[in-house]
Give the backbone structure.
Amino acid sequence: MFEGFEQRRVDTGETEINLVVGGNGPPLLLLHGYPQTHTMWHKVAPRLAAEFTVVAADLRGYGDSGKPTGDPEHFNYSKRAMARDQAEAMRSLGFASFFLAGHDRGARVSHRLTKDFPDRVMKLATLDIIPTHRMFQIVNKDMALNTYHWFFLSQPFDFPERVIGGDAEHFIRHSFQRGPNWETIFPAEALEEYVRCSTDPATIHAICEDYRAGASIDLAHDEEDFETKVSCPHLALWSDRGYVGRTQDVLSVWRDYSTNVRGKSMPSGHYIAEELPEETYEELRSFFLE
């Protein structure tokens, strides 16, 4: 699905990151969300590769990247550890600094990467999130019902792993088949790739650890350096039908965390890059090239 791209595995010293790289121009790292892989960028990355050197990577624990076992403090799946993977992968590819775009969990990793490695990220784009720190401050009935997986996946080991393992394929497919036109949004090849990767027991464990970290050690890290804002140019895009877009003033929220942010609502569901590939391409291209 990435014609002209080269697949590589990069040893970061802590794990291995699976990625594809292609194109010419300034480097641009693309990070995916849950329960996806780098494949989520297949409608956008080839077009961006005309003007950027595009790197689309699997987060640790996801896709074909390494899957460390979780630890009691959940540090192995903290956004700090996951961000360090991607910074090291880009360094190994020869990129001292780069543009960065992330969706969903990948946007949370991107937020942390930009804070921990401010000299490495030239510009940041986040798709359909507000910071984790703020999400846990706005918990109510509607948030719990619309984003129930935050609270299910973060339950102690190994309850969610066992439940999901009872019918992992149904659980993963349900994530993509809830909305209208899902067969058009997610071509069979992409959906099969998500199912292949996310039904692996090691990936199921990693996903749960990602969410456990989000409800624990990530919040501690966010509290420790709350006063350190994202200072590079920041583009925030969000779904007008998703929970965040319907209930939050997204730009107002981000201004508490980012000093130079602008953005817009997108007429889509959560999976912006797959639902609106042309619009996503145009927004990213114009932002990173201006």
